[in-house]
TrEMBL record:
PROSITE patterns hit by this protein: OMPDECASE
Residue stretches making up the Orotidine 5'-phosphate decarboxylase domain: 5-227
Active site feature: 59, 61, 64
UniProt EC number: 4.1.1.23
Pathway where this protein functions: Pyrimidine metabolism; UMP biosynthesis via de novo pathway; UMP from orotate: step 2/2
Protein name: Orotidine 5'-phosphate decarboxylase
GO CC terms of this entry: cytosol
Function statement: Catalyzes the decarboxylation of orotidine 5'-monophosphate (OMP) to uridine 5'-monophosphate (UMP).
Species of provenance: Swaminathania salitolerans
Recorded GO MF terms: orotidine-5'-phosphate decarboxylase activity
Gene designation per UniProt: pyrF
Keywords in alphabetical order: Decarboxylase, Lyase, Pyrimidine biosynthesis
Catalytic activity: orotidine 5'-phosphate + H(+) = UMP + CO2
Quaternary data: Homodimer.
Amino acid sequence: MKRTRLIAALDTQDLDQARSWAARLDGHVDAIKLGLEFTYAQGLAAVRDVAAERTLFLDLKLHDIPNTVAKGLTSLAPIGPALLTIHASGGAAMIRAARQAIDAAYPPLHRPILLAVTVLTSLDAAALRETGIDATPRDQVLRLGKLAMTSGADGLVCSAEEIAPLRDALGESPVLVVPGIRPAGSAADDQKRIMTPHQAARAGADWIVVGRPITQAADPAAAAAAIQAELAGI
Ligand SMILES: O=c1ccn([C@@H]2O[C@H](COP(=O)(O)O)[C@@H](O)[C@H]2O)c(=O)[nH]1
């Protein structure tokens, strides 16, 4: 069985905090995630600083017209992320433009994994309906997942609930990155479609993304190590 890898989401506006978490988690996580909160507060130079010598999941969830997304991804090339996100709901032309931009702007040996976010893990069926989408999260994830994979994405961001249906529909090739992960007993916070690290790994996640259960723990390194032990024990 493949190993499910752990990404720690370093969600903070503070550079020293991000540096400190990253250093404490070295050796305990497989990658770090920096996203909107950190990048808007500190800028891309700080992203480079924290990500230096580490595997970076740069989760900026681009969602715009095709030309703007393509140019945005091109601008991110000097950062050297290992994984990048766009929104699948931006449509086929946007995803194709993202694919072309990555193939053109990133050296072949350093091409990031292009991930399409399907349905945010903070949305349940009722919240999805409020956006005008009268489908279950599962069906909407499948629809967007198929669209993204046939338009050039390398993988998908989904909840653990959708891993099995996505594998049934699309096989093993999509890289599945799964947030909404909560160790047993931890608070769900604003996440709606959640599973434990063990459940996500059993379902076939390639990567899980864990933020607050690690960063808000009294000992973040110990929290990450406990999750790794849970992943290793599947
Ligand atoms: O659907 C999505 C897409 C991205 N995320 C990101 O994952 C982490 C989760 O943090 P927690 O503190 O473990 O809830 C966060 O950075 C989100 O931006 C997601 O949760 N769901």
